[in-house]
């Protein structure tokens, strides 16, 4: 029992290490600040001592720095398989739990750590930004009238809107991490995986966006756009509610996770259980 607890504690420290998780969450929240300070709109208002709301500045910043900050996700559970492969430990773990369970555990670790980091980073950013600059989270009805915003915010449900934005930000990182995990099946190198999120963001933002045969509700750059809120109507989903849109995203990510799990099992069955120096 003691040995099992030690193994569980060690395994947990690999994908949800308190120190690493806190560092990644803080640094990712910091990238949102840097995006805001790089916005000419904020700089002009800041010099004039004019504050609107956090949501206003966050919606109209360029988000370049926070997109580069997506590379931080490789420091969470997404790189565990690559670490096992490099250390030659995959075979031992599979013997103990089986291929399917091992793949499922790595996917679960990836999704949980990604969702927590993405959601908490956005919540932390809103809280700190509001405290530092004495701003409310969302603009008043007069300012909000000319902005694209979730239906809940237009209806005055600010707490629900904050939860909606945080959940969507977390699911954005989940989507990215699942794709990075799929790449790690082919390139199980932790140092190389750090750059993969930025490459994926470029492909989503520029390559996939040019493919007209892909519907808008399957375009990650639109579904997970943190700049300006894109309504379900603009995604071709009709009058889908905000929570209905979250449900649709969760369904798509569940299907993606299942596909990655199948690829994971196929990789382990073919040639994915031996690694280390002897495979080089």
Task: Explain the overall architecture.
This protein is an all-alpha fold. The protein contains 15 helices and no strands. The protein is globular, with a radius of gyration of 20 Å. It starts with a helix and ends in a 9-residue tail after the last helix.
Please describe the structure with a list of short key phrases separated by commas or semicolons:
280 residues; globular; mainly alpha; 15 helices
How is the biggest beta sheet arranged? none
Mean pLDDT: 86
What spatial form do the alpha-carbon principal axes imply?
Answer: globular
Distance between the termini: 37 Å
Q: Rg from C-alpha positions?
A: 20 Å
Could you spell the SSE succession in H and E letters? HHHHHHHHHHHHHHH
**Low-confidence runs of at least 5 consecutive residues:** none
The counted number of beta strands is 0
The proportion of residues in beta strands is under 5%
**What's the tally of helices?**
15
Percentage of residues in helical conformation = 55-70%
Structural class estimated from helices and strands: mainly alpha
Summarize the structure.
The protein has 15 helices and no strands.
Task: Describe the secondary structure blueprint for this structure.
Blueprint lengths: L1 H14 L2 H20 L2 H8 L6 H6 L4 H5 L11 H7 L3 H8 L1 H35 L7 H4 L6 H4 L3 H29 L3 H4 L2 H12 L12 H4 L18 H30 L9
Helix pairs in contact: 2-8, 7-8, 8-11, 8-15, 11-13, 11-15
């Amino acid at each position: 029992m003691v040995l099992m607890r030690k193994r569980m504690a060690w395994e947990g420290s690999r994908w949800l290490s308190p120190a690493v998780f806190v560092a990644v969450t803080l640094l990712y929240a910091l990238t949102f600040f840097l995006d805001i300070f790089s916005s000419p709109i904020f700089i002009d208002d800041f010099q004039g001592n004019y504050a609107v709301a956090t949501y206003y500045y966050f919606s109209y910043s360029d988000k370049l720095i926070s997109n580069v900050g997506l590379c931080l996700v490789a420091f969470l559970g997404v790189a565990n398989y690559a670490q096992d492969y490099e250390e030659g430990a995959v075979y031992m773990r599979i013997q103990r739990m089986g291929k399917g369970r091992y793949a499922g555990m790595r996917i679960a670790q990836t999704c949980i750590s990604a969702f927590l980091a993405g959601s908490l980073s956005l919540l932390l950013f809103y809280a700190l930004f509001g405290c530092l600059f004495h701003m409310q989270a969302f603009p008043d009805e007069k300012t909000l009238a000319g902005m694209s915003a979730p239906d809940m915010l237009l209806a005055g449900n600010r707490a629900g809107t904050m939860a909606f934005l945080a959940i969507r930000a977390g699911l954005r990182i989940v989507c990215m991490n699942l794709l990075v995990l799929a790449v790690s099946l082919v390139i199980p190198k932790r140092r190389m995986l750090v750059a993969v999120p930025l490459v994926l963001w470029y492909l989503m933002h520029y390559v996939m966006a040019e493919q007209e045969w892909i519907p808008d509700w399957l375009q990650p750059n639109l579904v997970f756009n943190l700049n300006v809120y894109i309504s379900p109507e603009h995604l071709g989903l009709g009058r889908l509610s905000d929570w209905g849109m979250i449900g649709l995203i969760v369904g798509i990510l569940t299907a993606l996770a299942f596909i990655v799990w199948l690829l994971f099992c196929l990789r382990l069955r073919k040639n994915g259980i031996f690694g280390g120096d002897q495979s080089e």
